[in-house]
From TrEMBL:
Protein source organism: Salinicoccus sesuvii
Subcellular location: Cell membrane
Transmembrane found in the keyword field: yes
UniProt name for this protein: Oligosaccharide flippase family protein
Taxonomic placement: Bacteria, Bacillati, Bacillota, Bacilli, Bacillales
CDD domains (alphabetical): MATE_SpoVB_like
Superkingdom of the source species: Bacteria
Chief location: membrane
Keywords: Cell membrane, Membrane, Transmembrane, Transmembrane helix
Length: 544
């Protein structure tokens, strides 16, 4: 199978899996929101997850992505034994790293909690530093096993095998959600426990989900091991790297992966440290602080991360292919893959983001309940998904063309900008200001990445111009149709009622999707972006 077909197939598998996990991660909030009783009670969940995510990225030390790149590189050279030597030792190293990171996060939990409470400002808070300490310590248990599991996925990806990552990710999310919802419900409604304890059970679900993922990966490993052993047997190269040499290269690859992987969590952590203080300085009563923070970092964030699922899948998929072609000096292949990925990403993300904007009211009400502030935050957050997606995939491309050291500076610039403008924007615009800060910082980061790609990858952006204009025009046409349907429906339906909002979504979303797909397939845009798959889709759906 050609690289192009492998790339499209891998992207398709990971996109479906990532979209499924993101969708599950959004849908579970409907019953979880109801069980927990509102945004304020969910804020504690958010206080735990951001430091957990950051520590997780540090614990993995960028090794999963680096292992994927390393294996892809040496497999391209036929040095399969070198790849084997690396991945065997990396799994052991990652288990040790997870244990050390767990101990570090467990010990640091009270200091992190104090920092968050200090950032929240003076006064009576819904949650104390002790509450936050306890929940961080509960979720820290998952740090023990996640780096090992993520590295295992990286090994499969290095061999251009994306099925195991896809299936294990869906199973991990499904197991986590079942445990989370069942545990929280039992604690609150059967055992008469506290909201604090329900939140603790909910975050512990991360550990249970990883166990499900690892069982899935072990099944795939047993199936694929024979094929991998056969590849290793064909290795007639004379590469013989010491562990010191291998891990020097892994560290060189890994540090930029750490920086990129924690970039989005760090923007959320900056919000966590500045949000409540910014609101206080802006004169917002303290009673709204935790609820609005819950909307920012959890409810609206979960919705916005659905379109960015495409970016996550594309970033994982494209790295081994660009690395392989770059190492072989096949710059034409590199350019084709960059063009394909950027256009495919924008083909899905732009219409999704615009649709979320115009349907922000029924969308938020459908998943949670009608809340003017939540809807307002979502309205501004939806287009930020485009910036998040572009930043994610351009970082992956920069790493693929072996300029991963530059991503360190790009992320630092992005975070400095975010930190500098966040409080002034929050003072001026409230919680929406934090969303604006994220959008501005990530857009600048993506722009710098594009400059790096142009300079060092010798990539020309002119071929992107025509299809990009088409994507924007067709998205606006879709948006017009959705708006007309939406405004026609609200004459007879109440957007502040959950059932009515679900009905609006059920009519408007498919209608908008049909218009966009018709325009894309009839104009040939879909063929340019999806290649031969577009014709297969057209034959199955004869209306296209």
């Amino acid at each position: 199978m050609s690289d192009s077909n492998n790339l499209v197939r891998g992207t398709f598998l990971l996109t479906i899996a990532t979209f499924a996990t993101k969708l599950l991660g959004m849908l579970y909030l409907i019953p979880f929101y109801s069980i927990m009783g509102g945004e304020e009670n969910l804020a504690l969940y958010g206080y735990a997850y951001t430091p957990y995510t950051i520590m997780l990225s540090i614990a993995a030390a960028g090794v999963p992505g680096a292992v994927s790149k390393y294996i892809s590189k040496y497999n391209a050279l036929g040095a399969y034994a070198t790849s084997q030597k690396l991945y065997r030792s990396s799994l052991i190293v990652m288990m040790g790293s997870g244990i050390i990171a767990f101990i570090a996060l467990f010990i640091a939990a009270p200091y992190i909690a104090d920092l968050q409470m200090l950032a929240a400002g003076e006064g009576a808070h819904r949650w104390s530093a002790e509450d936050v300490t306890r929940i961080i310590r509960v979720v820290s248990v998952a740090v023990i096993v996640v780096p090992f599991m993520a590295t295992w996925r990286g090994i499969f990806q290095g061999f251009e095998s994306f099925g195991p990552t896809s299936v294990s990710a869906v199973i991990e999310q499904a197991v986590r959600i079942v445990f989370l919802l069942a545990g929280a419900y039992l604690v609150l409604n059967v055992w008469g426990g506290s909201v604090q304890r329900a939140n603790e059970v909910a975050v512990f679900a991360a550990f249970v989900g990883v166990l499900g993922s690892m069982l899935t990966l072990s099944y795939f490993w047993r199936k694929r091991k024979k094929h991998i052993d056969e590849m290793i047997a064909t290795d007639d190269t004379d590469y013989d790297f010491s562990y010191r040499e291998m891990y020097a290269e892994i560290i060189r690859y890994g540090i930029p992966f750490i920086i990129v992987s924690i970039s989005i969590p760090l923007t959320l952590f900056i919000d966590q440290l500045t949000h409540n203080n910014g609101l206080a300085l802006g004169g917002v009563p303290e009673e709204y602080h935790d609820a609005w923070f819950g909307m920012l970092n959890l409810t609206t964030h979960k919705l916005v991360m659905i379109p960015t699922a495409f970016a996550s899948a594309f970033a994982i998929t494209i790295l081994p292919f660009i690395t392989k072609n770059y190492q072989k000096g096949n710059m034409e292949g590199v350019h084709q893959q960059i063009k394909m990925m950027v256009l495919m990403l924008l083909f899905f993300v732009i219409p999704a983001a615009l649709g979320m904007m115009v349907l922000s009211a029924p969308l938020y009400t459908s998943f949670y309940e009608f809340n003017e502030m939540g809807i307002k935050i979502l309205l501004f957050y939806a287009p930020v998904s485009i910036a998040i997606s572009l930043f994610t995939i351009t970082c992956s491309v920069v790493q693929g063309i072996d300029k991963q050291n530059l991503t360190l500076y790009v992320v630092l610039i992005m975070l400095v900008i975010k930190a500098a403008i966040n409080i002034p924007l929050i003072i001026q615009f409230g919680t929406v200001g934090a969303v604006m800060g994220t959008g501005i910082a990530l857009s600048i980061g993506a722009l710098i990445n594009f400059i790096i790609i142009k300079r060092y990858g010798r990539f020309y952006f002119r071929p992107l111009l025509k299809p990009l204009i088409q994507i924007v025009v067709y998205s606006l046409a879709m948006l017009l149709v959705v708006e007309l349907i939406y405004y026609a429906l609200i004459f007879n339906l109440e957007v502040d009622h959950k059932v009515d909002s679900l009905l609006i979504m059920a009519i408007a979303v498919p209608a908008g999707g049909i218009v966009y797909m018709l325009l894309s397939f009839r104009s040939g845009l879909a063929d340019e972006i999806l290649g031969s798959r577009a014709d297969k889709i057209r034959k199955k759906l004869k209306v296209l």
